[in-house]
Amino acid sequence: MTYGTRTDHYPATSKLLHWLVAACVLTTAPVAIAMGRVSEGPLQNALYNLHKSLGVLILVLMILRLINRFVVGAPIPDPDIEPWQKTVSSAVHGLLYVMLLAMAVVGYIANSAYGAATPFFGLFDLPAVVGKNEDLANQLFAVHRWTGFFLIGLVLMHVGAALYHHFIRSDNVLKRMLPRAMGGY
To answer: What is the value of pTM for the model shown?
Structure first.
């Protein structure tokens, strides 16, 4: 990942994209759990379509985040943080990027192989990227599901570290990503 030269906070575009992805992830994870637990019918179909739409949106937002990260960078790491924490932080951030992109791509390919439509909030359907192949779909859906559990663990580590920095260390690590209206800068 690239770092800029600023020491104070993330650029506004980085903050906006971060919080949009966070909102999508925090919505799509419970939707994914719910869609597998409700009976077949209109509600389950609506949950599947919402999950797919959010997945497409996450893919688009993550591509924009990558572009943004390479163009504007990020603040340099806080100099008061231990080297091992910087290493773990970089690893978690890198894995979050990779896993979010991989989840969306694998889900899209799995859905195409299953032969189902990939809608985008009822506006249009994405074209299938592979032909119908239920065996491939089942394998990819399993990868998608297990990757989701791993991603939830990464998100919990990320949120836990942010709260640790804010409430225990009382440093500015979290404030650098918060919008000004929420106490950031």
So the answer is: 0.93
